[in-house]
Specification:
The protein is of the alpha/beta class. The chain is built from 10 helices and 25 strands. Strand 19 and strand 20 form a beta hairpin. The longest helix has 18 residues. The mean pLDDT is about 95. The structure holds alpha-L-arabinofuranose. Alpha-L-arabinofuranose (AHR) binds next to loops.
Length: about 500
C-alpha cells in the first residue's frame, strides 16, 4: 500500500470556542419503522423492552450520549395533532400517515412516550410544532401541556397521564420545511405565520422556549434574506433558524464506483459552504448572533431508500461522509449551535437497523460513538496539511475536487481528542502530529481508534454485525510529537492525556 506523509499542528492554547454537544443531535420521525419497531414495540411485545421501548435500541443510543432528539417530524409534524397522542393508548385515534406510506398511525407513541424516551437515553426533547395544518392555539396548548406547573386543565391532564412534573421542553420548532411539505409557503408568508405562532410560544413554568424557525432548503440564501427582512428585527421572537441539507447520493447505498465514492465523501464541502454563507447572511441582520444556526436535518439520502419508508443500508462510505461533516461542525463551532442527523433508526442515514427482533449498529453509529468526546469540549485551532482528490479527473471543472483529509481537534480537561478522515481509497497517510503550546507538553498516555474495512461498500448486516467496527491502535509519543498511520478509507480518533 502506498502512503504519503502530512503534518497536523494542534495549537492547544488557541481555543476557538466550545463545541456544543447539540451538534451531535438526532432526529426521529413517524416514518417507516423509525418509531414503531425501531424504538417503540409496546409493553406487550416479545421483543425485550422496558415499558414499551426496545432495550437494544435504548442501550445503544445511551452509549452515544445523544444531547437532543427532534420529533415528531419532518413532514409528519405539519400534519400531526398532539392531542391524538395523549391519554389512554387504547383510546387514541387511528389516523393515516399521509406523508409516509399512508400507513395507519396508531398514535400509541405520543408526547409522554417521547419524553419517556428522551429521559431513558439522556437527550433533551426538541418538539416540532404543526404550523402547516395547525393553529397557534394548538401549539400553545401543547406547550402548556408539556411545561405548565400551575394546576391548569392541561397541566392536570398531563399529571393524570402519569407526569405530575412538567416535561420542561425547551426546544420548539415552529413548523418544518414550510417551503415544501409544511405548507408550500414563500418566505414572507411563512415569516408572517412564524411571527404569529412564535408570539404564543411563551415561557411557562421554569422553561423558556428556544423557538426554531424553518430555514431554507439547502443553501438557498434568497429564503434567508427574505425571511429575515420580513422578520423586521423582531429578535425577541426567535432563537434558532434551521436550514436542511441532505448530501444526496452518488450511485446507490451499496453499489457505487470509486468516482461515486469520492463524489459523495466530498459533500462535506457543501455543508461547510452552507454554514459559512448562511451564517454570513444571518450576520447581516443579526451581527450579535442572537439567533443560532441549526441544521436540524442532514445526512445521506440514497435513491434506493424504500419508497414511503426511506429505509436504506449504510456503508463505510456513509460513515466517512458523516465523519467529515462532523469535523466541519466542530471546526465551525462558533457559527452553528445544533445539528440533527436524519434519522435515528431504520430511516436514511440511521444509527441502527432493525427487522422485527433483529438489530444491528451501522458504521455511522460507530462514528458518532468515536466523536463523542468532542461534545462540549473546547475546539482548538489546528492546521491539517492535505492534498486533494478529484472524483472525476477527466472533468476539468470537477466541483468535487476536495481535500483528501478532514479533521478537527478539541480539548476537555487534560484530554486532547483529534479526529481524522482519510478519504483516499488506496493510499494511507502518515500524519506527523505536533501538539503546540506555550508551556512544554508532557503526554501521560495516548490511544487510537480506527474505523475501516477492506472496501468502502463494507456494511453491517444482521448476519455479520461486526463487518465494520472500530479497532484500537497503539500510539507512541515522543515529547510533544507522534506519527500515526491513517489507513485508506478510514476514520481515526486519537486521544492524548496530558500530565
Ligand atoms: O427525513 C425525511 C424527510 O426529509 C423529512 O420528513 C423532511 O423534513 C425532509 O424532506
Amino acid at each position: 500500500m502506498s502512503s504519503k506523509a502530512c503534518r497536523l499542528n494542534v495549537h492547544l492554547d488557541h481555543v476557538v470556542g466550545t463545541i456544543s454537544r447539540n451538534l451531535y443531535g438526532h432526529f426521529a420521525e413517524h416514518l417507516g419503522t423509525c418509531i414503531y419497531e425501531g424504538i417503540w414495540v409496546g409493553p406487550e411485545s416479545r421483543i425485550p423492552n422496558t415499558a414499551g421501548y426496545r432495550n437494544d435500541t435504548i442501550e445503544a443510543l445511551r452509549e452515544l450520549a445523544p444531547p437532543v432528539l427532534r420529533w415528531p417530524g419532518g413532514c409528519f409534524a405539519d400534519d400531526y395533532h398532539w392531542r391524538d397522542g395523549v391519554g389512554p393508548r387504547d383510546r387514541r385515534p387511528r389516523r393515516i400517515n399521509r406523508h409516509w406510506g399512508q400507513v395507519v398511525e396508531t398514535n400509541e407513541f405520543g408526547t409522554d412516550e417521547f419524553i419517556g424516551l428522551c429521559r431513558l437515553i439522556g437527550a433533551e426533547p426538541y418538539v416540532c410544532a404543526n404550523v402547516g395544518s395547525g393553529t397557534p392555539a394548538e401549539m400553545s396548548d401543547w406547550i402548556e401541556y408539556c411545561n405548565a406547573s400551575a394546576d391548569s386543565t392541561l397541566a392536570t391532564m398531563r399529571a393524570e397521564n402519569g407526569s405530575p412534573e412538567p416535561h420542561d421542553v425547551t426546544y420548539w420548532g415552529i413548523g418544518n420545511e414550510n417551503w415544501g411539505c409544511g405548507g408550500s409557503l414563500d418566505p414572507e408568508d411563512y415569516c408572517g405565520m412564524f411571527r404569529r405562532f412564535s408570539t404564543f410560544a411563551t415561557g411557562l413554568g421554569r422553561t423558556r422556549p428556544y423557538r426554531i424557525a424553518c430555514g431554507p432548503c439547502g443553501n438557498d440564501l434568497d429564503w434567508t434574506h427574505r425571511f429575515l427582512e420580513k422578520l423586521g428585527g423582531r429578535f425577541g421572537l426567535i432563537e434558532g433558524f434551521a436550514p436542511h441539507l441532505y448530501q444526496g447520493s452518488a450511485g446507490t447505498s451499496l453499489r457505487f464506483t470509486d468516482a461515486e465514492y469520492y463524489d459523495l465523501t466530498s459533500r462535506f464541502l457543501g455543508m461547510e459552504r452552507m454554514i459559512c454563507q448562511q451564517r454570513a447572511a444571518m450576520d447581516g441582520f443579526d451581527p450579535d448572533r442572537r439567533v443560532g444556526l441549526v441544521v436540524d436535518e442532514w445526512g445521506v439520502w440514497h435513491p434506493d431508500a424504500t419508497p414511503g419508508f426511506l429505509k436504506q443500508q449504510n456503508t463505510l462510505r456513509d460513515a466517512v461522509a458523516a465523519a467529515a461533516i462532523l469535523d466541519v461542525f466542530n471546526r465551525h463551532a462558533d457559527k452553528i449551535v445544533m445539528a440533527n442527523i436524519a434519522q435515528t433508526v431504520n430511516v436514511l442515514q440511521s444509527m441502527i437497523l432493525t427487522d422485527g427482533e433483529k438489530f444491528v449498529l451501522t458504521p455511522t453509529y460507530h462514528v458518532f460513538r468515536m466523536y463523542r468526546p468532542h461534545q462540549d469540549a473546547q475546539l482548538v485551532f489546528s492546521e491539517l496539511e492535505s492534498d486533494r482528490v478529484q472524483a472525476y479527473p477527466d472533468k476539468t471543472d470537477d466541483p468535487t475536487l476536495a481535500p483528501t483529509l478532514a479533521g478537527s481537534a478539541s480539548k476537555q480537561n487534560r484530554t486532547v481528542t483529534i479526529t481524522l478522515v482519510n478519504r483516499h481509497l488506496t493510499e494511507a497517510r502518515i500524519v506527523d502530529v505536533r501538539l503546540i503550546a506555550s508551556e512544554s507538553v508532557s503526554v501521560k498516555r495516548a490511544s487510537g481508534t480506527v474505523l475501516t474495512a477492506e472496501t468502502p461498500q463494507a456494511h453491517n448486516t444482521f448476519e455479520s454485525p461486526a463487518a465494520v467496527e472500530p479497532a484500537d491502535q497503539a500510539i507512541t509519543v515522543v515529547g510533544e510529537r507522534f506519527k500515526h498511520i491513517l489507513p485508506p478509507c478510514s476514520v481515526t480518533r486519537l486521544q492524548v492525556d496530558l500530565d
